[in-house]
User: Fold this.
Amino acid sequence: MKDLGVADVILNIKLLREDGGGITLVQSYCVEKMLSHFGYSDCKSAPMPYDSGVKLRKDHGATRHQLVYSQIIGSLMYLSSATRPDISYVVSKLSRFVSNLGDGHWEALERVLRYVKGTASYGIHYSRYPRVLEGYSDSN
Assistant:
């Protein structure tokens, strides 16, 4: 067995260590790779991932590019589950329409991609203290 030192990238997640003992998880490389793969590397950024005024419904017309849509949704799901919980809601909403999508769904998906492009350097920061992660829930 060989010691390779301190890890800096694990599963396309870059680990940025700080002097105070904190660590930040970022997937900027994965975002750039995904955007260039699907042809959105030159798009403008969007300030929000979802426009709440848009109502998405099933479209029973001819489905266009269903495979590409599902591939983009899968890539965004990986991002949202690892380091980008800010896009979780819209990705789960858009994933419901993989088999019945229309132009409105594509516009909403492109908006998410534009948002991700503008916020590629966003990640999750874990500070050194507290050592115990606490969560609270109010359920009946």
Notes: Residues 35-120 form one domain. The mean pLDDT is 86.
